[in-house]
Structure formats: C-alpha cells, structure tokens
Design brief:
By secondary structure, the protein is an alpha/beta fold. It is about 40% helix and about 15% strand.
C-alpha cells in the first residue's frame, strides 16, 4: 500500500495505478546498468548496484530509474558485443550484470586473491574493458558452478526456474553451448543443428549427454541473474521507485529466435533507418525484419510472451523505434548502407504509374547504379583509368559495374581482402547511385524511390522536365500516399500488444515521423519522447513548455552527445539557444556552466509532461565539483559510428554520490517544487 495517493502505486504484480483525480508526474534518471560504478562491481555495473542507484534516487526524490536493454548480446566475446540492442535472445539476461560476490555459492578459496586483484584492476579504469570483464566473469562463474555442481543440480528452486522458463531457456542454453563449441553465433556455419529441430536439440538436455553440464551452466547463470535482478527491483519498489526498461525493435541476425523461429522474420532483409540528423548514409542495423502477417496469425503470441517476461522486472517500457510498428526501413542483403532502403510496407511505384505520369522508365537507367565519364573523373581524377578497368565494363559508351562488383555488399566483401583505401568509400557510394530500388512481389516487380533522390548524381544528369516529374513521385511517396496504410498497420498490432501488458508504454518516436504516428500514439495513450535538440517540426529545438501530458521530456539521450558536448558542436545554435531559450543576455560562455545546466534541467522539470527523465551525466553537470573533468568520456553511443564501443562508466561511485548532501538536496528541492513526487 501507499499512504500518499499521488505517488505511483506499485502493487505486487507491478502496475502503474493512477489516481483518477490527479495527473501523476514523475522525475527520473536514465543510466545504463553497465555504467554504474560502485565498490562492488567488476569493472562494470551489475544488477545489485541498481540498489545503490535506488538509494541515491531516494535521496534526490527521483521516482523513476530508466535503463538500456539488459538482454544477452554475447556473440563473439569481443567489445562489439557491448552494443545492447543486438540481443542473441529476447529473454535471456546478459551475464555481464552478474555479481560474482552475490552468487548463491562462494568463490573457491584458491581463486579469491586472483579475483580481488582483477576486480581492482578493472574497477580502476575510467571506461569498461568489455573483453577483460566478460572473460573474467565467465572464469569465476564457471569455477563456482563446477565446484558446486552437484548441489546446484539438486536445488529445488533451480529446477522450478527451469520448468517455468523451459520454453525459452532450453533453446537458449543449447544455442550458447553450440555457439561456444563452433566459435560462432552464425548457426549457418555450425557442423550440427544448423536447422533447429526441437527433438534433436532436446538430446543435449539429457544428463547423459557430454554437453549437459555446459548447458546447465548457462541455465544456472540465467537463474542467478534473475534472482539478482528481481532482488534489486523489489528493493526499488519498497522505496517507491519504478523501473523503466527498454525494448529493442530488432533481433540479432544470429540469435536464438532467428535459429528457432526463422519463419517469423525476414531473414533476406536488413532493418535500419533512413538518413537523418544522426547520419547522412542512414543506418543499417543488420537485423532481419519481422514477418508481421505470420505473427498476426496467432494473435502476436511472440510479442505477448516477450512482454510477460519483461513484466517480471519492469513497471514501464520504452519501445525503441516505435515507428517500426508502423513501417520499417528495410534494405536488401545486397546493400550495406541505410541509404539503399525503402519503407516496408509501402504503396510502391508501379510501371503503370510511371506510364500514367509519362515518365520514361528504363530499368538500366533508373535501377542500376548510374556511372559516366564525368562522374568517374570527379571521383577518381588521374587514377580514373585504373579504377575503371578494374571495376567497370564499358559497352557502347555505357559504363556499368562488372557483375562481381555490382552491389555494395560485393564491394565491401571484396575490400575486406583487397585494400583500395582511397577508392573504397567512393565505389561503395557509386553502387548506391540509383534513382529507384526494386521489390519483388506476387504481382511482379515494383519500385521505391531512393531516399534523397535529388542529391544523387544520377538525378543530376536527367533533363529538367524529367527531374520535375520524379520530384512529384518522390513527394507523393514519402509524404502523402503512405499515411493511411501506416495508420492501419499500427492499429492492427499496437492495441493487441498494449492490452497484453500492465506496463506503462513509452514510444521512442524520433526520426522521420509520418503524420499518422502522433495520431495513433495519442489514441492509444502511448507517451511520446521529446528530446529538446531533436524536434519533429522544422525548428531549431523543442521547447519543453509545449509538452502535453503524454510526453517524456529530456535534454539528451544515450544516442546523443551530452549537453556539455552539445554546447560546443554549433556555436551559432548555442548562442541563439542561450539568448532565446534560456533568456540570457550577451555572449554564451565557452563551456556550459553548472548554472546553465540547472536552468536546462528546470525548464524540463516544470512542464505538463508526465515524465522528465535525464541521463545521470546531466545531473552531475549541474555541479562544478561533481562533473566529469573529461566530458568526452561521457558519451554513451554515437549512431554515426557502427559498430560503436558502449563503455561509458560513471566517474564517481554511487556510494560517494549518496553522501553529497548539498547536491542531493538541491535536486530534491527542484523535484519537490515541480510537483513531481
């Protein structure tokens, strides 16, 4: 129970209960679990550390803790696994969050000293050393398991955990064993069980099988992770703090789900995002797309099961890239850049439409990469002939890529073996110099205009009248004709999913947002995300005072620079923001000062939005003595760099932060004054 009616009321089955007479407002902190720094961690934040974050949040009157996805991403045991959105299982938790010291059995005595010295080394680092950390965790966890295997396998609670979670836990454990055995998560390269056949894989679950103990190790690690996370969440709930998780939109191409249920995914495609303020080339996440029709056939069971598991831990959920439920940006496997994608589903352009609009469609001119002599000169100058002879064929004056080089993927694969440093990027870019992309449907081939068609040199070499006609098609395709279709697609899926969960759902709706998105989100009461510097309208920044109730407002996100970094990115913008948004006179200071950081925080806190959530870095930026002296170590992700190393760690320990009374009281007073408690 909860004495104060305005407080978020968390029942044992964790749901958001609103008091009908008051609009519930809350303020929170966003921090990846891996970024938490405490005396206990092993060079990385662990589930039990969330309790210490809760102690600090309690001091500062913050009532929501938001984290990044915590699913297992172990593909290669290298730093590229640090990317939290490429889960190898939508159910399994990441072993990096396991506290060795809080396992149900103690570390064998002969390893304690070794463990302590490695822990001290890793904890001294300013950033995470992912590879050292993960290899250490497995070394010690395996030692604990092997020393206590007999007792562990007899444990009634562990047996119950297996039984309750068998449906995902067994295929996951088998996947891990096979991944480690064949040194790759790519099941197409395994010598056995390439294709998942439940009956055959089940043989591994027999105590007589030589891999049984390995399999049980993975199952037990999941059990221990579950206990540690559940314990942390219960602790937060006792403090009246709710937990907001993050649901990745994609699944990793070489994941348990792709292996066990390939029919649910478009394995021949890749999902990503079109070019935007993050990247000129768009983003290619390399995830397969969803086969929504197949998922719809059983009432979206796959999603509902997923929500059920997440609900054990979370009160609220951020749905990463909610636009994916309306339509996804998809590329064929032959592309490497997000540039070469199109929206799916979408009403495409047909050959009949080209004819009706009197556009002289030609497959070779519109769909194949356009290359001519001036383009080659412009790109390669005096080495033009060398490049042309190697990569291109010329017939009757028409230049085309040789068949072995005619897609971005073929070129990228070739350049992995052969280095043409100065030419690689330009050739890959030329392979994308097309006006339309093709899609094969049961009614034949249809076409989608390439994003930013007017920026291609292919377009530049068309006569003006043809350009004008293509512009009309482009505008119609991207801004007019799709809206009804996307509205319908979202309304098919989202209500079914929302009705299956008690979690508060927030949608991350940044990027190229179609008109139907705010309509659907309002209709379904899904809160939208407002990041001040990424406005959806054509304005320099978003003013949080315009935020309506169903919004989450914030100053920066895990994908952006921090405020202190942003302050340096564009001086003209900073100056204008300083004068007009913050109402200050004169020249903006060179660095963002704590006073200005505080003003930015307050303009987000004092709004009508349901939630105001800030990255931990922004709280620390309001205090000269607590801010990180090295601001460039504070960025979590840069979407323009893929793969990116996700290794940010707080530079202060949570234990120390909890003792900073002046700082903590300052934040608590903002929160109390903003009616958010």
């Amino acid at each position: 129970g909860n004495p104060n009616k305005d407080i978020l009321y968390v029942k044992a089955d964790h749901y958001f209960k609103f008091d009908n007479h008051t609009l519930w407002h809350s303020a929170g902190v966003a921090v990846p679990v891996f970024s938490l720094r405490t005396e206990d961690g092993f060079g990385v934040g662990e589930f039990p550390d969330i309790k210490k974050l809760g102690d600090w949040a309690n001091e500062t009157k913050l009532s929501v803790i938001q984290i990044l996805p915590i699913n297992d991403t172990t593909a290669n045991y290298t730093w590229t696994d640090s990317y939290p959105y490429a889960a190898i299982s939508v159910y399994a938790l990441h072993p990096q969050y396991l506290s060795i010291e809080k396992l149900e059995f103690a570390l064998p005595k002969d390893l304690v000293e070794d463990y302590q010295s490695r822990k001290a080394e890793l904890n001294a680092l300013s950033l995470i050393d992912y590879e050292q950390m993960i290899s250490g965790k497995w070394k010690y966890t395996t030692a604990v398991f092997e020393a206590n295997q007999e007792a562990i396998l007899k444990d009634k609670n562990f047996k119950k955990f297996i039984k309750d979670n068998e449906e995902w836990l067994m295929p996951y454990s088998a996947f891990c064993v096979l991944r480690d055995k064949y040194k790759t998560p790519n099941f197409n390269e395994w010598k056995t069980h390439k294709k998942y056949v439940a009956g055959k894989v089940a043989a591994l679950y027999s105590p007589k099988h030589k891999e049984y103990s390995q399999l049980m190790l993975h199952a037990w690690v999941q059990y221990q992770l579950h206990l540690q996370l559940q314990d942390a969440v219960e602790y937060l709930h006792k403090l009246g703090i709710s937990v907001k998780g993050d649901l990745p939109i994609g699944i990793y191409r070489y994941s348990v789900e792709a292996w066990t249920e390939p029919e649910l995914f478009g394995m021949d495609f890749q999902a990503g995002a079109p070019p935007d303020q993050f990247s000129d080339l768009g983003q290619n996440w390399e995830f397969p797309t969803y086969n929504w029709e197949v998922m719809k056939a059983d009432g979206y069971q796959w999603w509902k099961k997923r929500f059920k598991v997440l609900e054990q831990y979370f009160d609220a959920m951020r749905i990463d890239h909610i636009l994916g439920f309306f339509r996804i940006w998809r590329m064929p496997i032959s592309a490497t850049q997000g540039l070469l994608g199109y929206f799916y589903p979408a009403l495409p352009v047909t050959e009949k439409e080209f004819a009706d609009r009197q556009i002289p469609f030609s497959f070779d001119r519109y769909v194949k990469p356009f290359v001519n002599e001036p383009i080659l000169w412009e790109n390669f100058g005096d080495v033009k002939d060398k490049v042309q002879n190697h990569f291109f064929d010329t017939h009757n004056g028409t230049i085309t890529f040789k068949p072995e080089f005619d897609t971005q993927r073929k070129l990228t694969d070739y350049f992995k073996k052969e280095s043409w440093d100065w030419a690689e990027e330009k050739l890959i870019s030329l392979a994308g110099n097309v006006l339309f992309l093709t899609e094969e449907t049961e009614n034949g081939t249809v076409y989608h205009p390439r994003f930013n068609i007017a920026k291609t040199t292919s377009y530049k070499y068309l006569p003006d009248w043809e350009k004008a006609k293509l512009n009309d098609v482009y505008t119609d395709y991207f801004f007019k004709r799709q809206d009804g279709l996307w509205y319908q697609k979202a309304m098919e899926k989202l209500p079914a999913l929302l009705n299956s969960t008690t979690m508060l759902i927030c949608g991350e709706d940044l990027g190229l947002v179609p008109d139907s998105v705010p309509v659907v989100m309002d209709k379904l009461a899904i809160t939208a995300l407002k990041v001040q510097r990424m406005p959806s309208e054509n304005i320099a920044w978003y003013d949080p005072k315009n935020a309506s109730y169903l919004n989450v407002v914030t100053a920066s996100s895990h994908d952006s620079s921090t405020l202190r970094q942003w302050w340096h990115e564009d001086r003209n913008l900073t100056q204008s923001y300083f004068n007009t948004q913050l109402g200050q006179y004169g020249t903006a200071p060179w660095d963002l000062t704590p006073e200005l950081s505080e003003m930015i925080m307050k303009q987000h806190l004092y709004t009508n939005a349901m939630l105001a959530i800030f990255p931990i870095q922004e709280f620390l930026a309001t205090d000269e003595t607590l801010m990180n002296p090295n601001m460039d170590e504070e960025r979590i992700n840069n979407p323009a760099v893929f793969p990116h190393y996700w290794r940010y760690r707080m530079h202060l320990k949570l234990e120390d932060l909890k003792t900073k009374d002046g700082f903590n009281q300052k934040i608590a007073s903002w929160v109390e004054n903003s009616d958010r408690f």
